[in-house]
Amino acid sequence: MGCVTIDPNNPSTIWVGTGENVGGRHLSFGDGIYRSTDGGMTWKNMGLKKSEHISKIIVHPQNSNVIWVAAQGPLWNKGGERGLYKTIDGGQNWKKVLGDEEWTGVTDLAIDPRNPNQIYAATWQRHRTVAAYMGGGPGTGLHRSSDGGETWEQLKTGLPKSNMGKIGLAISTQQPDVLYAAIELDRRTGGVYKSTNKGSSWEKQSSTVSGGTGPHYYQELYACPHQFDRIYLMDVRVQVSDNGGKNFRRLTEKHKHSDNHALAFRKDDPDYLLMGTDGGLYESFDLAQNWRFMDNLPLTQFYKVAVDDAEPFYNVFGGTQDNATEGGPSRTDNIQGIQNSDWKIILDWDGHQPATEPGNPNIMYAERQEGTLSRIDMITGEVMDIQPQAAEDEPYERFNWDAPILVSPHDPKRIYFASQRVWRSDNRGDDWQTISKDLTRNEERLSLPIMGQTQSWDNAWDVLAMSNYNTITSLAESPQKEGLIYVGTDDGIIQITENGGATWRKIEVGTISGIPKTAFVNDIKADLFDENTVYVCLDNHKYGDYKPYLIKSTDAGKTWRSLASNLPNPTLVWRLVQDHINKDLLFLATEFGLYFSINSGNKWTKIKGGVPTISFRDLTIQRRENDLVAASFGRGFYIYDDISVFRNLSDKQMDTEATLFPTRKAWWYIPRAHLSFDNQKGDQGASHFVAPNPDFGAVLTYYLKEDLQTQKVKRNKSEKEKTKNKQANSFPGWDTLEEENLENKPQIWLTIKNQAGETVRRLEGKTSKGFHRIAWDLRYPPSNAINMVEPPPPMWGGPPQGLLATPGTYTATLSQQVNGEITQLSEPQSFEVVPLREGALKGASPEEAAKFWRSYEEAVRLSSAMNIALRNTIIRTKRMQKVLRNSTIETGNIDTRLAAVKKELNRLSSDLYGSQAKNQIGEKTKPTIGNRLFSLSIGLGNSTYGPTSTHKNTLAIINKQLKEYKSRLESNQSNLSAIAKDLIKAGAPWMEGEDLPE
């Protein structure tokens, strides 16, 4: 997103402009402007789909139908929808009122709070290619309109005469005749200018300009609404002036991320600041003396991803945009899931491609921008720089911004790295040797065309924050043939060596059918099974071409064919990964989501199920767990647990009625407490961020070809279709309608059985067509008695649950129940339940522990049943007393018998629940069955250790008392039944629950 605006007339209406509003090297493009009328719940595209980068939206303060949009336009090519656009009908139609058709768009906009027709705009002429960036030109300038943007005049008096770059624009809310402009000039210089007469003339205040990555990455300017002449200039560290731009100081940013882009104020609090940065969102309540980080927004931009093979849970590592290289667990064994505190910084600066050493999770590699490669000892945390260096008589190494590193599949100690040439180390980076010469075009970047032609040295060049150009971007070595190495570059070349670098074969990508000569090689993957097969992901978006380019060769690069097939256009193809089991199963990371193919790329299917439609820059598979790990550029990591389901997909399988897929082993353990024993966020509050663990237990995946529908649903669907096609619907008939009313709702059942064939659990699944997952939590069902009336939810904890089943082999069977009839849909799938780890002390065997757990559950079953039965029996007694009062029976025998039963039931209640008198004031009573069961529940429910002697003795007492109390209850129930019959015989009113009178 480039900007967001709330309608000042209706806070439920929100406008957003898509596409980042900077000129950086790695930015996402958008598809226009969107509107929400329900506070962001749903969105509608309102046009300007070719703008690509929208930087500001202003809604008329009195008329919501009038909106102005500042569109920077495409960064990588000319044209598109660039400039200032205006609508007077709420976005139904747009009119361009400022900007040219080639390189000049509008980057900032200000409106006079007294007069909405008085508008100021900053135009910006810029262009970026893969080689260079030019951030200014004659089209850049400041403009003013006094008729709501219909006509414009360029403001020049007092402004620089040379070509200007990015301009930040602000208007004083205290004195709206005062304007401020932060203007980028040649060679990353600039100045802050001020006008006191609505822009008619300007005076330079200082030579202040945003720095760091470059003015094109910042330059947003904000005027403080609380203090006149205080302005904030966004920068690596924010610059603040209290005198209209004459002098600047750095904002206090202690314990806060740098690279600031957006600032918001509160009208009611002059000390409040809300800052948007490359590291997230911060707020200050004391005018920047201290900052609060909002740590529950998963917004990290990951370039690349790597996984290790740590046990029992592997770790995920990622190189991020401006947030270092980070690492953390793929899952945890605690109830809370994965918290921020589980993650750590592995290496500083910007993070890029990480790598891990197979079989040795104590060694990993990470790099900062432009090839600053390090080896990290994960035991000590020590970081050793191992970047290869040019020899004394050699020129500098041109490392890409995101230089490729590769751990050889033939020797885990051997790593490859690349600048403009390929480097090899056989001892984890302690020593390096080159195995190639320069494999790029080695061009002079300033001699290449930009803005449609070659440019003068004196124009607005800025390559400081560029990646180096003419660099190697991709490396791959065939797992089937040592020394068969593939190289891809940023300038349209694929290089291949079959002898470890002794000789190289060059392929110009432009000679491959359908591939532009300027295409950037994003990724090369050598086939895991065939030494002659290789896959290449390319993109040409840095020349304004957003088509997907994906090719494959089966003869080591001699001939190629496209695998783009049904991939949508536009999209960019970033990364491909091949399954290590099924050679035809491929996964693809693209600009707008993830895809898979089950036929070697001939057809692609988008992965949904919670995956956002955003840029995914990298993919990998953790082979032990069969997990697909995806690095998104803006929403953190995503993990698809257990891709084995994809291996079983086929056209034939998809055409079957239903499929239950194989499942991987399930870890057997008690999730440990961290913040609490049963609350996902403990008492940390709703803002505490946790990512969910994979579902605990055995995760079962099944597929239904069609929805399971009732006859009524089918009829309604058919009638709706007929109505749509303007066909008549007929009355179905009374018999059909009655059958519909009597029909049971369809159900899906997954039945879990142990090795002895005994059913331990039945799970109800979804009945809609498609793929579904459901987890068995490795527990038996709760044994608590079921009440006829649903009880209120408990104040503490969740609903009751059973205890664990034993480790071992289990099966799952998929069945459907349609109109009451059960049909098995697939063959049983077996899976293993495996202990995660051994405890410090050896307790009972799992089998012994489980036997005791089942005995405990039987006690719970009987105890909970007795609780309900006793309560209902007491109620029955009271109701029978009412029946007796409403009868014509003479007082005497029945009254005496009923009173005796009531008294005995009250004694039984006291024995079960304790002294009623003591309970009234909270005094302790003799231990009850409930007390003892509770003691057992906390002793057994949080451990697999098994029963102690105390537990066994406690259960023995419980069972003895349950036997006695059950006998007493049944005796009283028998007496009540006899009384009830006598009442009926004597002509008393009938009572619900009793036998009907004759």
Features of the shown structure:
single chain; 998 residues; alpha+beta; 9 helices
Q: Flag low-confidence runs.
A: none
Number of helices: 9
Spatial shape: globular
Quickly give the structural class.
alpha+beta
Mean pLDDT: 96
What percentage of the residues does DSSP assign to strands (E)?
25-35%
What is the end-to-end distance? 78 Å
Number of strands: 64
Major sheet size, sense and barrel closure: 6 strands, mixed
Question: Could you describe the 3D structure shown?
Answer:
By secondary structure, the chain is α+β, with helices and mostly antiparallel strands. The protein is built from nine helices and 64 strands. Strands 56, 59, 60, 62, 63 and 64 form a six-stranded mixed beta sheet that branches. Strand 32 and strand 33 form a beta hairpin. Helix 5 (846-885) packs antiparallel against helix 6 (893-913). The model has no long low-confidence stretch (mean pLDDT 96).
Describe the protein's topology.
Blueprint lengths: L2 E4 L7 E4 L15 E4 L7 E2 L8 E6 L7 E5 L11 E5 L7 E4 L5 E9 L2 E11 L1 E2 L4 E2 L6 E5 L7 E3 L11 E5 L7 E6 L5 E6 L7 E4 L14 E3 L7 E3 L5 E3 L7 E2 L9 E7 L2 E9 L2 E5 L7 E2 L8 E6 L7 E6 L4 E5 L8 E2 L4 E4 L7 E3 L2 E9 L3 E6 L5 E3 L19 E3 L7 E4 L3 E4 L7 E2 L37 E6 L7 E5 L3 E5 L7 E4 L11 E7 L7 E7 L4 E9 L7 E2 L10 E6 L7 E5 L2 E5 L7 E3 L8 E7 L4 E6 L4 E4 L3 H4 L3 H4 L3 E3 L5 E3 L21 E2 L6 E7 L6 H14 L9 H9 L4 E7 L5 E7 L4 E7 L31 E11 L2 E4 L4 E7 L10 H40 L7 H21 L2 H6 L7 H12 L8 H37 L13
